Amino acid sequence: MNRNDRAIVALVMLAHGMVHTYELSIPIFITIWLDQYEVIDLGLAQFPVNQATLGAVVTGGYALFGLGALPGGIVVDRVGSRRLISGCLLGMAGSFLLLWLSPSLAVVAVGLLLWGAAASVYHPAGLALISKGVEERGTGFAYHGIAGNVGIGLGPLLTAVLLLVFDWTTVAGFLALPALVAAAYATRAEFDEGAAVAADGGDAGAGAADGSADTERTSGGSKATSGVSSLSDLFAESRRLFTGRFALVFTVAMCSGLYYRGVLTFLPGLLADLPGFAPVSISALLPASLDGVVVGGSGSQTLNPENYVYSGILMVGVLGQYVGGRLTDRIPVEHGIAGAFGGLALLALAFFPVANAGFGPLLFVGGVLGFALFVVQPLYQAAIAEYTPAGTRGLSYGFTYVGVFGVGALGGVMAGTILSYASPPVLFVTLAVIAAVASLIGVVLSRKKGTTAA
C-alpha cells in the first residue's frame, strides 16, 4: 500500500476497533448496573432495575447505533468521511466520559444514547473512505475487518481486566481516552479521500461486483451507476429495493441482528449462573508475598470467570469471519445463509443442555456459538452485493445496518423481558425460531435463483 492508503487504513482500523470495543464492553457493565442500582429515576416516574428495564435502557443506545447508519450514509457524501469519523470518535469519547461522571442510571441512559448516535455514522463513513481513498481496496477492507474483530474480542477483555483494579465509572473514563487520541489523529492525518476514485478515472468500483447481476437489479430505471442525488431518488430507489429480493436479504440481516443482540446483551450474566462460574478471589491465586502488592491487601478483589469466557467467545469470531468470507467465494451465498442460520438455530436449542453438563462442554458450545455468530455476517453482506445495483450499494448497506443494528437492537429488550418474566431456555428457543426464519429465507432465495437461471 502507498502512503495515502496506509494513513487511511490506520485511521479506519483505530475507529472500527474502538466502535466495537465500546459496543461490547456495555454487556460487561450491565452485570454491575444490575447490582448497583435499584431504580431508574426519571423525575416524574420511577422504574425498578431488572433485566427488562435495563434491557430497554441499553436497547435505546444500540437502536441509535443502527438507525443512524442510513442518514450517516447520506451525509457522508455531503461532508466527507474525515469529518464524520472525527465526530464519531469525539462523540464516543464524550459518551464514555459522561458514564464516568454519571450519578444515576438515568444519566447512564443518556450516555448510551449519545454513544449510539455517535457510533452510528462510522460504518458508512469508514467503508466509503476505504472505497474512495484506498487504491488497494481489498487489503484495506481486510485490515478494517480484522481491527473490528479485535475490538469485539479484546474490548470486553480490557474492560474486565480494568475492573479488577478500578470501579466501573473509572474504567469508562479510561476507555474514553483512546477515542480522543484517534480523533486528534483524524483531524491532523494527511490523506486524499478520493485518491482511488482519481486513480480509476472517476469511476472507482462502479459495477465491480455486478457481473452476475440479474435483470431485477438493473432494470426499471434504477440508478445503477448514478446513485441517489435527491429526496425523490431516495424514495424511488428505496421502493425499488424493497419490491425486489433485497427485501428478503434485509429480513435475513434483521434476524441476524436480533439473534446477535439477543444472545450477547445478557450473556455474561447468563454464564455467571452456570456451574463452574463462581467468583474467584485473587488473593487465593497469589503467593502471600504478592497479595498486598497486587490487590492492595483488601482481600476482596475477585475474578469473574464469565467476563473472560464471554471475551473468549467473541475472539473466536475472528475465525468465523474468515471462514464466512471464504465460503462466499466457494458456495452460493443463498446456500450458505440457509446452512449457517440453520446451524445457529440448532446451537440455540443445544446451548443450555450442553452448558449445564460442565465447564468443558460449556467452553466447547460457547466457542462454536462465537464462531457461528460471525460466519453469517460475510454471507448476508455478499448477498446484499448480489441483489442490489452498484449505484445504490451505499443506500443498500445503509438499510442493512439499520436492520442489523437498529431493528436488531430490539433483541436486547426482547432478551431482558424474557429473562425477567420467563427463563433463559425460553430466550434460546426464541432465538432458535429467529435463526430458523433466516435459514428458511435462504432456501427460498436459492429456489428463486434456480428458477430464474432455468
From TrEMBL:
Signal sequence segment: none
Location of region: Disordered: 208-228
Residue stretches of biased makeup (Polar residues): 218-228
Membrane topology per record: Multi-pass membrane protein
Domain Major facilitator superfamily (MFS) profile: 9-450
Main subcellular localisation: membrane
Coiled-coil regions listed in the entry: none
One Gene Ontology CC term in the entry: plasma membrane
Sorted UniProt keywords: Cell membrane, Membrane, Transmembrane, Transmembrane helix, Transport
InterPro entries from the UniProt entry: MFS, MFS_dom, MFS_trans_sf, MFS_Transporters
Transmembrane segments: 7-34, 54-76, 107-129, 141-162, 242-260, 308-325, 337-355, 361-383, 395-419, 425-445
Molecular function in Gene Ontology: transmembrane transporter activity
Localization: Cell membrane
Pfam families registered for this protein in UniProt: MFS_1 (PF07690)
Top-level taxon of the source organism: Archaea
PANTHER family hit by this protein: RESISTANCE PROTEIN MDTM, PUTATIVE-RELATED-RELATED
Protein name, as recorded: Sugar phosphate permease
Organism annotation: Halogranum amylolyticum
